[in-house]
Write a structure and sequence with these properties.
This protein is an alpha+beta fold. It has one domain. The protein has five helices and seven strands. A four-stranded antiparallel sheet has the order 2-3-4-5. A three-stranded antiparallel sheet has the order 1-7-6. A hairpin with a 2-residue loop joins strand 2 and strand 3. The mean pLDDT is about 85.
Length: about 200
């Protein structure tokens, strides 16, 4: 006959609490929320400002170079002259002012009677800028500017509008003319020059 051995010390030890599934799920959710807060904070305070600065500098450089390409002889044109701007010319101007290492690639410009739309890729992601050129008090301005895609996380429509209008003002100063009208057609923007401002 076998004798049963009873360990009297085992009864005195408290049993270990078992972790519940709810506790694991709650811990997991807390970790996920903390990670999201860290990522969002990193984007808002580090990533976005850096990307914003880089994009603004690239756009500023490209638009300044485009303004510099306006021939000085254009200031000699008489008031009432219509300047047709083809979408192919705008597209070529954009492509020529992008460096091969630029994060902006494959720009395509479309001019319709309702507005101008420029589609492109930023780091392989599809983006677009659209707006309507309008003449206000003799000044060509960009209105109804919209930003789509990844670029919308970096640059707001208001910021882009201000930058576009600043460069449109520089271009108009180089032309030394006010503007009478801006008419959109399929594949073409027709600008009619106003009085000389020289």
């Amino acid at each position: 006959m076998f004798l049963a051995v009873i360990n009297p010390d085992a009864r005195d030890q408290p049993s270990k609490p078992r972790s519940s599934r709810a506790g694991c799920v709650l811990s997991g959710l807390i970790v996920v929320v903390l990670l999201l807060v860290i990522i969002l904070g990193g984007w808002l305070f580090i990533g976005r400002p850096l990307a914003h600065s880089m994009v603004e500098q690239e756009l500023d450089k490209a638009m300044s170079a485009a303004v510099e390409k306006i021939p000085t002889q254009a200031s000699l044109l008489p008031a009432g002259t219509m300047l047709p701007i083809q979408e192919n010319a705008l597209n070529n101007l954009i492509v020529l002012n992008l460096s091969p290492s630029s994060p902006v690639q494959q720009p395509t410009t479309r001019i319709t009677p309702t507005g101008i739309r420029i589609e492109f890729q930023v780091y392989g992601q599809q983006c677009a800028i659209s707006g309507v050129p309008t003449v206000v008090n003799g000044q060509l301005t960009a209105t109804n500017v919209q930003v789509e895609g990844l670029l919308g996380l970096i640059l707001s429509p208001e910021e882009l509008t201000a930058q576009l209008n600043r460069h449109l003002g520089d271009a108009q100063a180089r032309l030394k003319h006010s503007m009478r009208s801006a008419q959109l057609k399929d594949h073409e923007l027709d600008l009619t020059l106003g009085d000389s401002t020289a």
